[in-house]
Amino acid sequence: MYLSHLLAALTYYSCAGVLQPKNPTVFTSIGLTYHQSGNFNRAIENYNHALGLETIQSKVTSDLLEVAIKEWTIRDVPS
User: Fold this and answer.
1) Which residues lie closer than 8 Å to 55 by C-beta, 6 or more apart?
2) Are 33 and 10 in contact (CB under 8 A)?
3) How far apart are CA 7 and CA 1, in angstroms?
4) How many whole angstroms separate alpha carbon 79 and alpha carbon 68?
5) Whole-structure pTM value
6) What whole-number distance in Å separates Cα of residue 70 and Cα of residue 43?
7) Nearest Cα to 34, choosing from 1, 65, 59, 63?
């Protein structure tokens, strides 16, 4: 059920991204949704995109980007 909610959120956020392509909050939200689903590559991509658009929320997005990079690095380290 949780995954289906994330997929629905991605659908809505993607539509918002088409309607508001210069809105950094939309791309931070897309990044966060990918992050929560474990897709760190797409999360990082969207956080970086949001940072390129941002003015006010830069700290929040950069903190989320830092966490995503750490989690991605930890996940991809061979055990």
Assistant:
1) 24
2) yes
3) 10
4) 19
5) 0.77
6) 12
7) 65
